[in-house]
Amino acid sequence: MTHPEEKQMSETFRVGALLAVAGGFLDAFTYLCHGGVFANAQTGNIVLLGIRLAEGNLWGMAHYLLPIAAFVAGILLAEGGRRACRAWQWIHWRQPLLLLEAMVLICCAFAPAGVADAAVNVAVSFVCALQVQGFRKIHGHALATTMCTGNLRSAVEALLAWRSEHSPEALRRSRHTFGVVLFFILGAALGVFCVRALPGEEGNALWVPVFLLASVFILLFRRPFRK
Q1: I need a labelling partner for 166 at 20 to 30 A (CA). Which of 1, 6, 40, 59 fits?
Q2: 137, β-bridge pairs
Q3: At what angle do helices 58-85 and 117-134 cross, to 10 degrees?
Q4: What are phi and psi of 43, to 5 degrees?
Q5: Is the predicted pLDDT of residue 218 greater than 90, yes or no?
Q6: 200-221: string of b/e by CB count within 10 Å (b at 16+)?
Q7: Are 142 and 136 in contact, with CB atoms under 8 Å apart?
Q8: Which residues are bridge partners to 142 per DSSP?
Q9: What is the pTM of this model?
């Protein structure tokens, strides 16, 4: 049982930074290798779904419904896993989610670019949902590691709170949130570098986020830390 004053290792900045690098990497990977789309966030898919609806293009609607459905399935699975496994003492309930993410990405590594674009984008949407539902906070504050819009809002809001209230906690929250955005950018840059360094074998680049997820998996074996 976690002490009331203890914080989960899953809420540390180092875990958030590693997952943000993986998130940025995957967005760059799907954009460069699988159809020029950003598969981590679903806003674009929902907008395009609405456009296809207005056009009466049912096949086009199905194309965008698939990643949205995969995202919903990932949220449901992650939440179900949290409820079912939270009482486990021998492993953190988030660790099976990380294993599942890694296994899905390993499968995607063998998918040929151009031929399996839709399948890979659906799979990455699923992985994103597991991650965004399983890892939602850093030091108690809401934060996402697979998208940046909400993080930018939170970071600026915390910075303004620090300027007006001189709150050390607000400054710390702003630094952490801006830091996660920075690591997301670095992850995207790393994704570009790895894809370009492996012409014809771009799928092998996915071993990088698999390694990052494995690192987080190992970190979660550490005991919670005191606030």
Answers
A1: 6
A2: 142
A3: 30
A4: -60, -45
A5: yes
A6: eebbebbebbbebbebbbebbe
A7: yes
A8: 137
A9: 0.88
DSSP state at residue 51 = H
Distance CA 55, CA 61 (A): 10
Q: How far is CA 151 from CA 137, 146, 156, 158, in A?
A: 11, 10, 9, 10
Rounded to 5 degrees, φ, ψ at 91 are -155, 145
Q: How many Å apart are CA 157 and CA 152, to the nearest integer?
A: 8
On the question of pLDDT at 3 being above 50, the answer is: no
Residue type, 114: G
Strand partners, 225: 7
Q: Tell me the per-residue pLDDT of 157-197, one tens digit each, with 9 for 90 and over.
A: 999 999 898 889 999 999 999 999 999 999 999 999 999 99
Token look-up 């994704």 returns 191
* Cβ pair 198, 90 in contact under 8 A: no
Range list of H helices, the chain: 13-33, 43-55, 58-85, 94-109, 117-134, 149-165, 168-197, 207-219
DSSP reduced 3-state for 56: coil
Would you place residue 5 in the very low, low, confident or very high pLDDT band (cuts 50, 70, 90)?
very low
